[in-house]
Specification:
The chain is α+β, with helices and mostly antiparallel strands. It folds into 2 domains: 3-69, Orthogonal Bundle (Arc Repressor Mutant, subunit A), CATH 1.10.10; 84-222, Chorismate lyase-like (Chorismate lyase, 3-Layer(aba) Sandwich). It is 28% helix and 31% strand. The chain is built from 7 helices and 8 strands. Helix 1 packs across helix 3 (43-55) and helix 2 crosses helix 3 (43-55). The longest helix has 17 residues, at 3-19. It starts with a helix and ends in a 15-residue tail after the last strand. Mean pLDDT is 86; it is low at 73-78.
C-alpha cells in the first residue's frame, strides 16, 4: 500500500474508533511509535493521518503526554453557505468586488492538509475583496482543489466572485464552518481599511463533494460589518 493510501487508512481507523465510542473522550490514542509499528509506516505518515483529526476537533495533542480523544465542544446552529453578493444586495447596498491575486500552483504542506491532498497537488489560490456601499466588507482567501474542480481554471474570477461561481456550478454535499474573533494583521488591516489589531470576525469554511474536498476559504470581516444570525425551531423528540 502506498504512503498516500496508508495515511488515509490510519485516519479512517482512528476516526471510526472515536465515532463508534470504542475510544471515548479522554482516551489516549496509541503513541506515534505504536502506530508506526502497527501499520509498518513512517512517523511522517502517522502525523499526516492524525493532523486532520486534530484540525477537525476529534483529537487533541498534549505536549509530552500524547494524543487523546477530545472532549465534546458545544457548537452553534448549522449555517448555510452564504453568497456575499446576494447578502449585500439584500441589505440594500451596492455590491463591489475586486480580485487581488490569483495563482495556480502546487499546494504546500499546510494547504495539502487543509484540502486532504497529496503534497504538490494543483490548487488555485485566490485573494479577493468584497465591498458594500463602497466600503471594504470582507477579505476572502480561498483555495480551490483543481483535482475536484478542474473547470475553475477557465473561469474569469476578475469578473465573477469565486463563492458565487462555486455555489452556482459545483454541487456540494457537506460543509464545515468555524467562526471566531481575531485581531487584524497588518496586511488584512490595510486591505480592509481598518487599524492593525482591530477586532474582526473570521469565518473558516471547508466544503466537500462526497469524499473530495472542494474548497477551503477564510473570510475576514471588520468587526462592525457583519452579523451572523441563525433562525431555528426547537428539535422534536
Amino acid at each position: 500500500m502506498s504512503e498516500a493510501s496508508l495515511h488515509r487508512r490510519i485516519r479512517a481507523d482512528v476516526q471510526a474508533r472515536i465515532l463508534s465510542g470504542e475510544w471515548p473522550p479522554g482516551h489516549r490514542i496509541p503513541a506515534e511509535h505504536e502506530l508506526m509499528a502497527d501499520y509498518g509506516c513512517s512517523r511522517m505518515t502517522v502525523n499526516k493521518a492524525l493532523g486532520p483529526l486534530t484540525e477537525a476537533g476529534l483529537i487533541e495533542r498534549r505536549r509530552r503526554a500524547g494524543s487523546f480523544v477530545a472532549r465534546p465542544k458545544i457548537h452553534s446552529a448549522v449555517l448555510d453557505i452564504p453568497d456575499i453578493a446576494a447578502e449585500v444586495a439584500a441589505r440594500g447596498e451596492a455590491y463591489g468586488y475586486e480580485l487581488l491575486a490569483r495563482e495556480e500552483r502546487p499546494a504546500n504542506d499546510e494547504e495539502a492538509r487543509a484540502l486532504d491532498l497529496d503534497p504538490a497537488a494543483p490548487v488555485l489560490a485566490l485573494r479577493c475583496l468584497h465591498r458594500a456601499a463602497g466600503r471594504p466588507f470582507a477579505l476572502e482567501e480561498r483555495l480551490v482543489n483543481l483535482a475536484a474542480v478542474p473547470e475553475a481554471r477557465a473561469v474569469d474570477f476578475e469578473r465573477t466572485p469565486p463563492g458565487s461561481w462555486l455555489l452556482g456550478h459545483v454541487p456540494w454535499t457537506e460543509a464545515e464552518h468555524r467562526i471566531g474573533a481575531a485581531a487584524a494583521g497588518r496586511v488584512a488591516a490595510k486591505t480592509l481599511g481598518i487599524s492593525t489589531g482591530a477586532a474582526c470576525l473570521v469565518l473558516h469554511r471547508r466544503t466537500w463533494r462526497g469524499s473530495e474536498r472542494i474548497t477551503d476559504v477564510r473570510m475576514t470581516f471588520p468587526g462592525d460589518a457583519y452579523d451572523l444570525v441563525a433562525r431555528f425551531t426547537p428539535s422534536q423528540t
